[in-house]
Amino acid sequence: MRLSAKDKVFLVLKYIVLGIFTILCLYPLLWLFLSSFKTNTELYANPWGLPEHFSLDNYVQAITEGHILQYFGNSVIIAVSAVLVAVVLSSMVSYAITRMQWKLSRLTLNVFLLGMMIPVYAMVVPLFSMFNRMGLLNTHLAVIIPHIAIAFPMAIFIMTGFMGSLPKEMEEAAVMDGCNIYQIFFKIIMPISKSSVVTVAVVTFINIWNDLLLPQIFLTDASKMTLPVGLTEFQGQYATNYVAEIAAVIITIIPSIIVYIWLHKHIMEGMVAGAVKG
Asked: How far from chain centre, in Å, is Cα 225?
């Protein structure tokens, strides 16, 4: 099918606009990457120029003196634990709300969705008081538990939208074949819901990985801090090692970029899942 001259011009303009937008999005990452190989003197003299020598000294300093690997491990423990629990529990709740017949299912869904209207800042003071009485302050559980609760409303919103669109004939056929409710859920519903599950997992992981507020409030021991909090260690009272901090930032954002690139197809599918009933 041949395009008219007007359509060709529109297509060229569209790609130009998209190209400019892509450059604007990628340039900050490129600048960070190049700056991580500079010295502080080079950064101050010409922040937009290329490094004179590509050296890994800043990364070595970030790992050895900045203890980035220790913070990295803490972030992995908190993020993975919270994501696993949030995904498993929210998928079970979504299944119960959308696939089972009970009177309060709609009310229960609305109660969970109300959680999306509560800002995390409103929960800090009561959570701090609660964890203090329970002896959970300065433990990873003090960060994991709130993140699970924060992820619940969004996770249930996405999963109920997808599971509600699945035909009930699948479950009826499975029951006729002798499957119980657990087999239906784990062997039929969950594999079909992979896109929505991946979407919830990735969005939750990125939110937890980049969170600064909760670890900074609930954790006091430096050995238990996460990466976002650990980045503040590079800022001294009289001077800041910016290039080492930039190298630490690169180490911090790499997992989020890898996870998103690896699973972006499932994320897009999960975001539109359930939009069309079928």
From this structure: 18
What is the identity of the amino acid at 156?
I
Contacts of 241 (CB under 8 A, 6+ apart): 40, 61, 234
| Locus of tokens 């696993």 | 84
Question: Does residue 216 contact residue 202 with C-beta atoms inside 8 Å?
Answer: no
Q: Express the helix, strand and coil content of the chain in percent, nearest 5 each.
A: 75, 0, 25
Measure CA 150 to chain center: 12
Q: In terms of DSSP H, where are the helices of 36-140?
A: 40-45, 57-64, 68-99, 105-114, 124-134
pLDDT for 149: 92
Spatial contact of 189 and 99, defined as CB atoms under 8 Å apart: yes
How do residues 190-242 score in pLDDT, each as one tens digit? 888 888 898 899 889 999 999 989 999 999 888 899 998 888 877 764 457 78
pTM higher than the cut 0.90: no
Report the interhelical angle of 57-64 vs 68-99 (nearest 10°).
80
240: CB partners within 8 A, 6+ apart: 234
